[in-house]
Write a structure and sequence with these properties.
By secondary structure, the protein is mainly alpha-helical. It has helices at about 5-10, 35-45, 45-70, 75-90; strands spanning about 15, 30. The protein has four helices and two strands.
Length: about 90
């Protein structure tokens, strides 16, 4: 069951553009849950499948890049070293 406070928290969520992408501009782009709801009201539910597909492809590319980053020999050796340290420290 959803409480009123959970609904209020969801409606207050805002996604803010990173400054590295907008360092030359004076304004930062933001999008909130209300923006998404208004867009669905305006354009209909047909945009949801397009949005989900775009988001899936975007995250898929990011996870592939992250996975390749983790398998880099330099990064992998640092992670193994840290894992060893935490194993020794916790036991």
């Amino acid at each position: 069951m959803t409480t009123l406070s959970q609904v209020m928290i969801l409606r207050m969520q805002v996604f803010i553009e990173r400054m590295t992408n907008a360092s030359y501009r004076k304004h930062i782009n933001t999008i909130s849950v209300n923006h998404v709801a208004n867009s669905i009201r305006t354009h209909g539910t047909g945009i949801i499948s397009t949005t989900v597909n775009f988001t899936y492809q975007y995250l898929s590319h990011k996870f592939i890049a992250f996975s390749q980053f983790l398998f880099d020999d330099h990064i992998k050796s640092r992670l193994v070293k840290e894992r060893r340290f935490f194993k020794v420290t916790l036991t």
